[in-house]
Every structure is written in C-alpha cells, then in structure tokens.
Write a structure and sequence with these properties.
There is one protein chain. By secondary structure, the chain is an alpha+beta fold. It has 3 helices and 8 strands, in the order βαβββαβαβββ. It has one domain (about 5-150): Aminopeptidase, CATH 3.40.630. Helix content is about 25%, strand content about 35%. Strands 1, 2, 3, 4, 5, 6, 7 and 8 form an 8-stranded mixed beta sheet that branches. The radius of gyration is 15 Å and the shape is globular.
Amino acid sequence: MNLHWSCKHHKQLSKEELYALLALRTRVFVVEQNCPYLEVDGQDLQGDTCHLMAWHADELLAYLRLLDPRFQAGEVVIGRVVIAPHARGIGLGHQLMERALQTCTERWPGLSIYLSAQAHLRQYYAHYGFLPVTEVYLEDGIPHIGMRRP
C-alpha cells in the first residue's frame, strides 16, 4: 500500500486534514468503542502540538497526536492513537509508533514520553520501551494504564 506520511504542527493543518482526523477519532473512539465523551478536548491546537498522519490517496488511515511538553509536565504525551477499522492488521500501528518515537526524538530530544494505553495493549507498548507507571484505571469505561518511555 502506497502511504503518504506527514507530521504537522497544528498551524500547518488544512481544514480538510483537521476534519479528517477529528472524523476518524470520533468514528473509532466515540462510535466504535461506544464512549460518549467530548472528543474535541481543547488540546489539538495548543502550543507546539503536532499531528502524525498516514494517508492513502485522500483517506486518513492512521493518526496520533504529540502534545507539547510545555503543557504536559515537561514530557511529550502521545495520544489519540488510531487506525481506521479497515486498515487494521497490516502493521500500520507499528509504522505509526516507530514514526512517532522518531519524531519525538527529533523535536524534543532527551524528554521522556508518556501515554495512556488501553490496558490490553500493555505488551504492545512495552515492545517500544514503555514501562507501566500507574495501576490499571478506568477511562470512559475502558481499562487503561499509564506508561512512560524514559
């Protein structure tokens, strides 16, 4: 599959890109996972927050955001990690995480990276050097665990 990858500061996003990422996140996190919550949380356009995206033609297949460490207690926070339902199972998540870690190293060298993982993905993130730093907790009815990569 021919993918176009981009990581953009929020000020570089076109209205079509912003719409696509919000639509994908809502389709998966709110509708598919049946979690009615305010998906637009005010952090997408904050500081130096960046958005990592994989496109096939004009369709967004993979996405995550990197929150500005100045607003996150001095560490980069990876969040809203999502793969379009029909693009799962082909290794896109691994490509997304590898690019995210590379981007974090380039943009914010030396900072730790934090994420709130769905608990069943603990081993997946451990593969990338993330260690659990919290007990399992419920977020929107789904078990999560805080993980950090030093």
